Amino acid sequence: MSKKILLILVWIGFVSYAFTLAPPQQPDTFDLIANLSTGKIAGVNPLIVALFNIMGVLPMAYSCITFLDGRSQKIPAWLFTLASFGTGAFALLPYLIFRQPSPTFQGQKNWLLKILDSRITGSAIALSGIGLFLYGAMNGDWSNFVQQWQTSRFIHVMSLDFCLLCALFPILLQDDMKRRGLTDSQVFKILSFVPFFGALIYLALRPPTIEQSTPVPSEQVAV
C-alpha cells in the first residue's frame, strides 16, 4: 500500500470516527473552549489546559517545516498549516496527501522563512511544548482526564488529534533533513521518530536549510 493511500485512509477514518463513534458532545463544550482560549482556567484540569495549549504549539512546530516544504509545492502549504491551528490533523492530512517530495530548497529564504528556520524559533517552540507537557503531567488529575476522555467528544478527539500529529511529523522530517544535509546523521534520524519530544528537540538543534541557487518558477511558489 502506498503512503498516499494509507494517509487517505487515515484521514477518512479519523473524520468518520470523530463524528460518528467518538463520545457525544457535552453541553458545556463551547464554554470550556472559550475559557481555555481566554485563559480562564480556574477549576479546569491542568491536563486539559496543557493539552489544549499543546494543540497550538504543534501547528507552530509544523509551520517550521511546512512553510519551507511548501516553497516547491503546487498547493498552498500556508493555508493547510493555518487551518491546523483550529482543526489539527484534519487540515494537515490533506496537505500530506497531496504534497510531492521536496528534498531541496530552491531560491532564497524571505524574512518569514528565516524566522521559521531559526534555531531560536525552534527552541522557543520546544521549551513551550515541553513546559506545557510537564505542567500537565505533574499537576493534572489523571482519573478525571480519563473520565472526560470517555465522555466528552472534545477531549476525546483532541487527545487523538494530539497523537496523530505526533505520529505524522516524521513524514515531513525526511525531506527536511535532506534540505539541511542531515541524511547521514543517526542522531537526527532517531530524534525524528521519537514522538513529540523528538520533534521539538529536532527543531531546536537542526542546522539551517541549505539554499539552492536555482530559483523556483513563480507558478510553483506556494509557501
From TrEMBL:
Alphabetical UniProt keywords: Membrane, Transmembrane, Transmembrane helix
Domain of life: Bacteria
Keyword Flavoprotein: no
Transmembrane segments: 44-65, 77-98, 118-138, 154-173, 185-205
Stretches of the chain forming a coiled coil according to its record: none
Signal peptide location: none
Entries under PANTHER family matching the protein: PTHR36009, TRANSMEMBRANE PROTEIN (PTHR36009:SF3)
Listed name of the protein: DUF2834 domain-containing protein
